[in-house]
Structures are given as C-alpha cells and as structure tokens.
Amino acid sequence: MRHARSRLRQALAAATATGLLATGAACTSSDGDSDRVRIGLLVSLSGIYTSVGEDMHRGFQLYLDTHDGRLGGREIDLVVADEGDGPATAVPAAQKLLERDRVVAFTGLVGGATVDKVQTLTHERRIPLLGANARPGWPPARDLAYTWHTSYNSDEPGIAIAEYIKAQVGNGTVYAIGPDYQGGWDELRGFTDTYTALGGKLANLDGKTVFTPFPTTENFLPYLNRAAETQPAAVYTFYAGGPAVAFVKQYRQSALKDVPLYAAGFLTEGPVLDAQGTAATGIRNVLNYSPTLPHAANQQFVAAWSAAGYPGQPTTFAMASYDAAAVLDRALAAVGGSVTGDTLNTAISTVGRVDSPRGDWQFHPTEHRPVQRWYLREVKPDGPVLSNVLLQDLTTLPAT
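Below the sequence we write its predicted structure tokens.
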C-alpha cells in the first residue's frame, strides 16, 4: 500500500510538471485562444490529507478522461498544485496559479482554512472558485459572488444526523470529540448545536466538545478512556485521513469499545477504511454520497472509476471533484468566445440542476453550495470487502 501510494504521488508530481510545461507553451482562453482553457486544481498531494487530495485529483481527471480532455467543447490545460497541510503551503501555490499560470477558474481545496484564504485571492481577481471539499461556515456578510462549492458546508454532516442520533439515544447523552482546527470546529458545531436544540444533552463534563491537538495527536486512548467515565449512550466525532485510522482502532481498544460510534462520514471514507479494517465495523455515519447508491449516474461513475484502474470504490472527495468538472463543462459550453473569470462565473450561476452520482442537486441561489440529500451509512461487509453501505435517506440541506 505504501509503495503504491508513493508511485501515485510520483505520477501526480509528474503530471503536475507536465501541466506546467504545457501551460507555458500553449495559449489559453486568457491569452486569446477561445478553444483552450486553463484550470487550476489545488489539492493536498503531501501531508496529512494526501489520500483526500489524490482522490479529488482522480475525480476531476476521470471526468476529463471520459470527455476527451474537453469541457464545454474546449481543450483543458489542467494545472495541478500542492495544497499541503494548509494555508502556509496553499497560499503561495494559489498565488502562482493565479499570477503566473493565469488560470480562469480554481477548483479543489481540501481544507476549510485553505478555502478561507484562497477565496480572498480569487474574489479580488474576479476568478470563480469552485471548491470540491471543505467549506467553512462563513457569516452571512461574506461576499460569495465568485465562490461556489460542489461539496457542502462543513457543519452540514452534523446537522443532518443530529435528529437521527437523538431518536436513537432517547434521554441518554452523547459525547462529542474532534480535532482542534477549523474543520473540526465546524463539523462538531453542526452536530452539537443541532442536537442540543432538539433537547439532547452532551455527556462532556462542561457541556462542550473535547478538541484534540491537530495534527499532532496520535494517542487517543487517554481522551477515550476519560470520555468513557461520563457513561455516554453514544459518541459523535469527526476525523479524517491518518488520525481517523488511529481514532477508530484505538476506540475499539478503549473502555468505549461497546458504545455506539456515530460520525461525519469522512471517518471511514476511502483508503482509511481499508486501514481501519474490522475495527470500523458497525460505525454509522452521515455523508452526501455512497458508492452503493442506485442512481444510474452513480452506476456509470463507479464503473468508470473501476475501468480507470483507480483503487477501491469512489469516495465523496472524488465525486465532488467529478461534479466540479461537470459544472465547468456545462458553464464553459454556455460561454461564447474567449473565457474570462467574469463570463465563466456568470455561466456557473445558470447551470441549474446537476445529474450527479450522489443524486440530482442544484446550487443554493445565494449560498452557492449544493441543495442535496444526506444519507445514513453503516460500515459492514459488501461482498468480500467492508463498505459504507447505504441505510436510509436523512434529510435535504440546505433548504432553499
């Protein structure tokens, strides 16, 4: 597994270098050629969320590969850059994409803190940012004119599952725990605010979520054993990447091992589930996608993923990036002549309903994020492998 990932990172790095050479030689729509468009893809190709970034790259590339390398009838120069672990790496990479590579659209972005910083840059330059993963819970005053997401607001998973968990625990309490950074704050806030508004009580001694140091925490057992002392009826959490593997394995070794564990679906999404193995069995989680959804668009997506030789099953990270390419495909088809940030941004606003592997969705008219279904999943055997198997629909968020 480690050698395979190393080879993939080398391949992605080579693809990035090739893209940079190509963009240096080829004209794009920003240079006056209406048949070529330069798109920037900024994702984590190193650091704690490498597996997420790799899946996002795969998803966008899969759409390109199944559409002859074109979006909206125009040849695409995809320039890939490394987000790393956050703004310290991502901001210089974003500045290069905007200033040297002169992309006319931005997509990708794994972390919420990265989105917050890059959104300022793209807004200043009137370039559409089409994020495909985390998105902070911005205040209503934030100007989102050039900011769109094909994923979700980071507080939505917790909002979507809170009512279900309240019904499961009744008068029991829930212990909330997550990582101490923007994504963790948003993910846990969505759950705790909604759950307590429904009359639920947190088992946490001070009534507040316990946040573990990020990204340094590797030993969760002290936190988990202290949580067990509160005798919760259930635990709710969010972790992703490497920390998700450690958390799940240590959960089954802790005094909480028999307490139901609920989570934002990133806890068991993609390669981390393979690493967690049977320790993840029975975890119920919420997400906007499952590879077992019966939609025709999803069946085609899963088949194309497998045919491309990509590992495992497609993830929500890959799906949202695939949808970002689909949105750009339709938007670019609606632009006549040379493409600018302004003309492309206006076209994105007219895309309408998207036929997606997750099910049909459309952008919220003012918040520019998907109005979409959220699903309850459970980790269980699906044939010879463990999978996040669909249990039921939960709700549609956000309301229009």
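Residues 2-152+294-368 form a domain with the Rossmann fold fold (CATH 3.40.50.2300).
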